[in-house]
Specification:
Distance between the termini: 20 Å
Strand content: under 5%
Number of strands: 0
Number of helices: 10
CATH class: Mainly Alpha
């Protein structure tokens, strides 16, 4: 019984630690001058948290990420157009990205831990960006068309993929893939601490 309580306490402490990391990293990212959107630096702690603690932790960390984006002003371009849709979209994409990382990791981890980490590291930015793209089409398309035309793009799709998300998505996916071996080491270390041989 005390072992179960100890593990639960450890998970809560880990979740608090990852929550603080997400807040700090996303607040720092808000200071980086990247146009038109801030780089997301929190996907790695979301993946690690989801793998170490569980899918709920990934979803929670995604919610925290979304909340910091809203508070920091990173979503202001969209908030002035449609506040309710912006809040919904920013929180939803974070929550689903973190949860998806946890689900994918848990589905594959028993058989191949490295493959599980790589898949979770890929799915997290894909879901985050994918939900953002879908939201742009549903809630903001007329504005996106105007922005695209002003930036010299022939259509909204080209502007979304090249002008808005291209660099950010490639950067986020690349960082996740490069750091995947580190994630595996962190997970192995954590599991060895819980279940010493």
């Amino acid at each position: 019984m005390s072992t179960i309580k100890s593990i639960d306490t450890q998970k809560l402490v880990l979740l608090a630690l990852f929550t603080a990391i997400v807040i700090i990293l996303q607040a720092l990212a808000a200071l980086l001058p990247v146009y038109p959107f801030t780089l997301t630096l929190v996907l790695i702690p979301m993946v690690v948290g989801a793998a170490l603690i569980g899918t709920f932790a990934g979803a929670w960390l995604g919610f925290v990420f979304g909340t910091v984006v809203l508070i920091s002003g990173n979503a202001n371009l969209f908030l002035v157009i449609n506040p309710a849709a912006t809040i919904f979209l920013v929180l939803l994409k974070g929550i689903l990205a973190g949860a998806a990382a946890g689900v994918i990791y848990n589905l594959i981890a028993e058989k191949r831990k490295m493959i599980a980490v790589i898949c979770a590291a890929i799915i997290c930015p894909v879901v985050n960006t994918g939900i953002f793209i879908i939201g742009c089409y549903i809630f903001f398309l007329p504005t996106i068309i105007q922005w695209g035309e002003a930036a010299g793009f022939s259509n909204a799709t080209a502007f979304i993929f090249i002008g808005m998300i291209g660099f950010n998505f490639i950067f986020e996916l690349g960082v996740n893939l490069v750091l995947s071996p580190t994630i595996v080491r962190l997970i192995k270390y954590r599991q060895e601490k819980i279940n010493p041989e």
